[in-house]
């Protein structure tokens, strides 16, 4: 085959590959667009065409993190709306219960995160820092829902409903992320993780004290020496 024939075949192959890639991309975009419209925009109805409360889409995920603390209380959210170039103003204030959970992702732990003291009486575990989950604001149980305005349109109510929910969630997240609450969550997490691994080691007949250190924390300068030559598996095997 001459050079021109080889070039034509190469161009044809590239054209076919590009065409297949475009076909796949269009198919994926169409599928995602269909799912978005079906799940987010269209009203779901029963077999008689009546809109009913129902689960439209749901996905169950596995998790390997440990909830070590939870912050709960009542949060206040606010919202404002303006119509007719500022002539028609409205506001909304809501008070509702909220919860925020603190987690430690234990799935990231590896053998290098366990250190045994040289005398074999203490194991230090280095764990990821506490992560804060998204606040859950229960607007269905709101104790206060005040709407003020001479005339509040339906669109204004929809707009303020979204804003007041976002305001409450943002305020709860700020409180959950405060230095004081983060410090408390770390202490709760330290105790919970120590109990968890102490129980597991006791069951494996390994009699050691467990201490927990979060990533980024400085180790105490106590002069104690640590044995990093043995992994946790070797320690457990020796205990057996």
Characterize the structure shown.
This protein has helices at residues 3-41, 154-176, 179-203, 232-239; strands at 65-83, 88-105, 114-117, 122-127, 131-132, 136-137, 144-149, 209-214, 226-227. It is α+β, with helices and mostly antiparallel strands. It has a domain at 65-217 and 229-238. The strands form two sheets. Strands 1, 2, 5, 6 and 7 form a five-stranded antiparallel sheet that branches. It has a four-stranded mixed sheet with strand order 8-4-3-9, covered by helices on one side. A hairpin with a 4-residue loop joins strand 3 and strand 4. The mean pLDDT is 81.
List keywords for this structure.
240 residues, DUF4230, DUF4230 domain-containing protein, 4 helices, 40% helix, alpha+beta, 9 strands
Radius of gyration computed on alpha carbons: 29 Å
Overall pLDDT level: 81
Query: Can you write the helix and strand succession as a string?
Result: HEEEEEEEHHEEH
Strand segment count: 9
Which range does the strand content fall in? 25-35%
Shape: extended
Question: How many helix segments?
Answer: 4
Given helix and strand content, the structural type is alpha+beta
Distance between the amino and carboxyl termini: 71 Å
Question: Which helices and strands, and how do they pair?
Answer:
Layout: H1 3-41, E1 65-83, E2 88-105, E3 114-117, E4 122-127, E5 131-132, E6 136-137, E7 144-149, H2 154-176, H3 179-203, E8 209-214, E9 226-227, H4 232-239
Parallel strand pairs: 4-8
Antiparallel strand pairs: 1-2, 2-5, 2-6, 2-7, 3-4, 3-9
């Amino acid at each position: 085959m001459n050079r021109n024939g080889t070039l034509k075949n190469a161009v044809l192959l590239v054209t076919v590959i590009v065409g297949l890639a475009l076909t796949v991309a269009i198919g994926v975009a169409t599928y995602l667009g269909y799912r978005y419209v079906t799940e987010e925009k269209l009203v779901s109805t029963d077999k008689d065409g009546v809109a009913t409360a129902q689960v439209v889409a749901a996905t169950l995920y596995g998790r390997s993190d440990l909830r070590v603390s939870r912050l709960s209380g009542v949060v206040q959210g606010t919202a404002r709306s303006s119509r007719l170039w500022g002539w028609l103003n409205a506001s909304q204030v809501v008070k509702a219960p909220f919860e925020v959970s603190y987690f430690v992702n234990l799935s990231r732990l590896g053998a290098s995160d366990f250190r045994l003291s040289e005398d074999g009486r203490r194991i230090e575990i280095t764990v990821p820092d506490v992560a804060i989950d998204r606040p859950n604001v229960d607007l269905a149980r709101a104790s206060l829902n005040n709407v003020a305005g001479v005339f509040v349109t339906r669109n204004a109510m929809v707009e303020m409903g979204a804003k007041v929910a976002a305001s409450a969630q943002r305020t709860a997240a700020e409180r959950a992320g405060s230095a004081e609450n983060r410090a408390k969550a770390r202490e709760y997490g330290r105790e919970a993780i120590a109990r968890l691994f102490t129980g597991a080691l006791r069951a494996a007949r390994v009699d050691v004290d467990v201490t927990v250190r979060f990533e980024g924390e400085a180790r105490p300068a106590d002069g104690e020496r640590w044995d990093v030559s043995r992994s946790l598996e070797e320690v457990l095997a020796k205990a057996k």
